[in-house]
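# nightly structure sweep
# worker-07 picked up a monomer target from the shared queue
# config: single-sequence mode, recycle default, output format = structure tokens
# input follows
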Amino acid sequence: MKRKLFSKVDLIIISVLLAVSLAFLLPRFFKKENLKAEIFQKGEKLYTIELSQVTESYELKLDGAVILVEKNAVSFKKADCPDKLCVKCGVLSHSGDTAVCVPTATVITVSGGSNEIDVISY
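# output follows
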């Protein structure tokens, strides 16, 4: 006698649970955040950029660092520091993201949008 792995009722319950899960997750992907990047060098604020209003990517050349600004993202592209930790930090695209280049005294912070903390790792 052959036994089925799932009955029709099991499949209906699984389908309903998947649909409810997707209903909770989909708004997160379509949420529009108004992100703002602030760029400091040697303690002085140089730029405040509305990242959601950027239409074309461009570079900012500072003393010892090159910063790439894109729509909803900002990152260090080049730096004169020996270890390049600021470049390895990657793209900053969420509220609360920060990258620092200590030798050039340059700090990039992203704010705005939702301030939910998802995960913190160091």
